[in-house]
Amino acid sequence: MIIKGIGINGHPSLWQGDLKIFEEDLKFAQEIGFDYIEIPPHGLDVICGGKLNYKRLEKVKEIMGRYKLKYNVHAPDILSLMDNEREELHKNVFFNVLEFSKEIGANLIVYHAGWVTSDIAKNKELFERLKEKERESLAYFADIAMDYGILISVENSNVDLNIIQGKIFCYGANIYELIDQIKKIGKSNVGITLDIGHGYIASKYLKYDFLSAIKSAEKFINNIHLHDNFGAINDIRENIPYMYRLNYGLGDIHLPLGWGEIPFEKIFSIIKPNFVYITLELEPRHRDEYKNSLDFAKKLCNLFL
Hints:
By secondary structure, the chain is α/β, with parallel strands linked by helices. It contains 13 helices and 12 strands.
């Protein structure tokens, strides 16, 4: 089977460490009919100061054991294995994300491609050295993950206001550069999370052909994040409330499938991954649309066959 399951992402900003809300989300996901949920450990307070909180973990595992769902994991968004100043701290967090994933029986870990400040990115020699450090770290963690039966999946980056204003730089916004990084890592259990919403916006901003890029990535894709948008960057100001970004169609707004303009049918018709998890990443305010988006995703998956 190409499709390993269709899941929904958990929301760290919604959970805020509240295990009652966490359990409500698990129950909701199971009732809707999702196969799994993508767990952000940073929403559950299980990693503190770069260490795993085992007492907290046991409470989380007890709750998860009440449901028939399977689980993947999403590492903290700020985790960057290219951060030279906090290298050991980031590695500690990644290692404990890996340990958390083993403890809950997760199949896959999503990690956002590394980022640096724009000043560092301008120093090409230093930037390439940091990319190499990321490759070395991911290769090291991949060997541990292999023993645990876990995949690592590097996600292509969103183009947000920090990138537009030149504050930070992330090579992973360009799918072709992400493909190159994965090739150089050269580990069979390290692949790509194709975030279709991120890629659609990035292709407009960086001016590359979106469909050609994802076709080039297909054999490395082991996870797909599905959500809709209008391909428009948020170039007004930071921290605009979601309701206004929704009005204007700005940025990475995680809409239900079919609400934006992403050509999902074309995408699923041209890419043929070897195997893939499908994860819906939807804004929680659209919970009443989760079932419709799940049905939409199932129809898309038929295009793989």
